[in-house]
């Protein structure tokens, strides 16, 4: 199959081919609900980061419903021309019978469309049965003097399910999975979330020191559990093969061992027994020690995953959970976890609060502060799960920002398929789910969030394994029939349009679109370059006039249903 997207590799990238990183095009496959990129032992797609040689140069990296996946085009600002990101065209690819090998080296010069050529393109798109679409236009004003939040980063989660699935792949494919997410040629992730003990994406519920019961000294917590021995080895391998220098791992416990809980069960209406408040703080310190001893330093922990599951939602949530009210958690934090952590060798661990849905923000923290006025001073960050974002608007994030402006705010869990009305199994190839990610990343970043950690980096074809069948979608889906391939979903690229080009330390800057045809957010990176994410969710192509307060003007036409990252100096 010809990778048309590859044809856009422009002059810009040719100039860059000096370094050892390499660009490999996506092997696109039509599947039930759209298109995926297929990775096998001998082929997996990567994109070397575009570099700019001249101050007027730009690069634009594009993905589209029709099949572009990180296609790259380059050009210059202030040229009296309109640039066009041409969409992937499957028909031509099939017609021409080009093999991948051929297309890989068939690099053509960048495509510059003058205004007249553009008319032909418009006709072209009519032929493609988009007769009703009329090119729309928008002006994007970028002002780097107006600075907002600083980015902490982006990442995914290494759950028990991820560990179990990954372990069944040959080493080369395991490495492709790790590099696809964490290498600079991959998505450039720098954050990761793991569970302390088990979570629902495990083969069964588990915690440290399940036995002996009633043992507040945690005498059985001297070594890593076998499941963590495997997971730690895998994450170390991930660090090695991806070349990541500063992986930041954030951890959270889903539940204490049942004997510490009021209902002596993994799930249901259960809270921590008062007499074990200190033991539960010690449990966190002991786990940090175990990780350190085994060579995997931890960046952050939270006060516990989704505390409201065990208070309000026990009839729906069947997986391991432990309930907290904000009042009780304030006491635990103020008298136990906070002082224990801050007086330990792990005093610099970043501590996140809440780790639950947006609708509890910022009320949760106000209630905590009401119960124990300085309990929230122990928190460095606030982490939020995205699951009800469509119902509870971003103003709750703005209120949180106003209430606690100095805390790091990140999304710590997201995935699609958790709701009864969503088809819970993965939808292979769904562009719509990729769009949903793009829209949500844009909204949260526009409202001051500093980072995002997605849920499982890989799941099987039915969206598991999950020990209570709480199956969902993931950015990569495994082939568990053969373990010879895995599939990168559109969601993978949607996240990459942010994570790959917006490194830690980037600062959001003003980027204002003149109308709703463009959804956008822009950043000034530590290297001084501007990265602007451009999302055209419309059915028509879109002329974007970028007006930068320093660099000047650029006109670029992007296809329908497409997402881009524009880079320039
Ligand atoms: C593509 O392959 C088909 C079937 O093998 C063949 O009939 C056709 O002529 C080929 N087209 C080109 C342009 O080579
Ligand atoms: C927390 O409560 C104390 C005591 O009422 C108050 O002085 C402080 O301003 C509150 N903190 C915040 C962030 O509102
Ligand atoms: C997994 O691989 C097998 C064998 O090649 C194939 O039949 C099956 O369709 C693949 N599964 C998916 C989800 O593509």
Commentary on this structure:
InterPro entries: GH, GH30_C, Glyco_hydro_30, Glyco_hydro_30_TIM-barrel. It catalyses: a beta-D-glucosyl-(1<->1')-N-acylsphing-4-enine + H2O = an N-acylsphing-4-enine + D-glucose. Residues 151-502 form the Glycosyl hydrolase family 30 TIM-barrel domain. It is an enzyme of class 3 (hydrolase). One of its GO terms (molecular function) is glucosylceramidase activity. The model is unreliable at 1-20 and 97-132 (pLDDT under 50). The protein contains 13 helices and 23 strands. Helix 9 crosses helix 10. A hairpin with a 3-residue loop joins strand 21 and strand 22 (552-558). It is 25% helix and 24% strand. It has two domains: 2-56 and 64-147 and 508-568, Golgi alpha-mannosidase II (Immunoglobulin-like), CATH 2.60.40; 152-498, Glycosidases (TIM Barrel). The chain has 569 residues and is an alpha/beta fold. An eleven-stranded mixed β-sheet has the order 4-3-23-20-19-18-7-21-22-5-6. Bound molecules: 2-acetamido-2-deoxy-beta-D-glucopyranose (NAG) (3 copies). One 2-acetamido-2-deoxy-beta-D-glucopyranose (NAG) binds at residues 461, 479, 481-482.
């Amino acid at each position: 199959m010809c990778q048309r997207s590859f044809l856009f590799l422009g002059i810009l990238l040719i100039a860059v081919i000096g370094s050892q990183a390499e660009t490999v095009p996506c092997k696109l496959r039509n599947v039930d609900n759209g298109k995926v990129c297929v990775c096998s032992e001998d082929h997996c797609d990567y994109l070397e980061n575009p570099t700019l040689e001249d101050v007027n140069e730009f690069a634009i990296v594009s993905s589209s419903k029709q099949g572009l996946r990180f296609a790259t085009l380059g050009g210059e600002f202030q040229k009296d021309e309109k640039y066009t990101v041409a969409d992937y065209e499957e028909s031509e690819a099939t017609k021409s019978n080009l093999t991948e090998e051929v297309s890989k080296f068939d690099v053509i010069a960048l495509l510059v469309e003058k205004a007249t050529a553009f008319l032909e393109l418009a006709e072209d798109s009519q032929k493609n049965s988009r007769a009703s679409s009329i090119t729309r236009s928008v002006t994007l004003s970028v002002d780097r003097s107006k600075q907002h939040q600083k980015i902490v980063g982006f990442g995914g989660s290494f759950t028990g399910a991820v560990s179990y699935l990954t372990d069944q792949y040959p080493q080369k494919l395991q490495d492709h999975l790790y590099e696809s997410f964490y290498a600079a040629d991959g998505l450039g992730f720098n954050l990761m979330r793991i569970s302390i003990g088990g979570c629902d994406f495990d083969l069964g519920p588990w915690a440290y020191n399940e036995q002996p019961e009633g043992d507040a000294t945690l005498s059985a917590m001297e070594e890593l559990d076998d499941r963590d021995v495997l997971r730690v080895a895998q994450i170390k391998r991930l660090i090695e093969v991806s070349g990541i220098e500063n992986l930041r791992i954030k951890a959270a416990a889903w539940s204490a061992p049942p004997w510490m809980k009021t209902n002596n069960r993994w799930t249901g209406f259960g809270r921590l027994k008062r007499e074990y408040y200190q033991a539960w703080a010690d449990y966190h310190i002991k786990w940090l020690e175990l990780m350190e001893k085994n060579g995997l330093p931890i960046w952050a922990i939270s006060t516990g995953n989704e505390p409201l599951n065990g208070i309000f939602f026990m009839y729906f949530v069947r997986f391991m959970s432990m309930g907290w009210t904000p009042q009780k958690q304030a006491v635990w934090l103020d008298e136990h976890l906070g002082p224990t952590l801050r007086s330990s060798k792990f005093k610099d661990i970043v501590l996140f609060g809440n780790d639950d849905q947006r609708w509890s923000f910022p009320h949760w923290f106000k209630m905590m502060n009401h119960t124990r006025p300085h309990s929230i001073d122990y928190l460095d960050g606030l982490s939020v799960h995205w699951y009800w974002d469509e119902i509870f608007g971003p103003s709750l994030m703005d209120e949180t920002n106003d209430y606690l402006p100095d805390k790091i705010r990140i999304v710590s869990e997201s995935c699609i398929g958790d709701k009864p009305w969503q088809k819970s199994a993965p939808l292979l190839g769904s562009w719509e789910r990729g769009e949903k990610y793009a829209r949500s990343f844009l909204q949260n970043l526009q409202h001051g969030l500093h980072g995002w950690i997605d849920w499982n980096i890989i799941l099987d074809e039915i969206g598991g394994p999950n020990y209570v069948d709480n199956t969902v979608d993931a950015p990569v889906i495994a082939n568990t029939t053969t373990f010879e391939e895995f599939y990168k979903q559109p969601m993978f690229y949607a996240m990459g349009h942010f994570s790959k080009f917006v490194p830690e330390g980037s600062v959001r800057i003003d980027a204002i679109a003149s109308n709703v045809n463009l959804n956008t957010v822009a950043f000034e990176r530590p290297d001084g370059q501007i990265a602007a994410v451009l999302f055209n969710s419309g059915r028509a192509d879109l002329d974007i006039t970028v007006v930068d307060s320093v660099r000047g003007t650029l006109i670029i036409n992007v296809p329908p249903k497409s997402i881009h990252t524009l880079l320039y100096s």
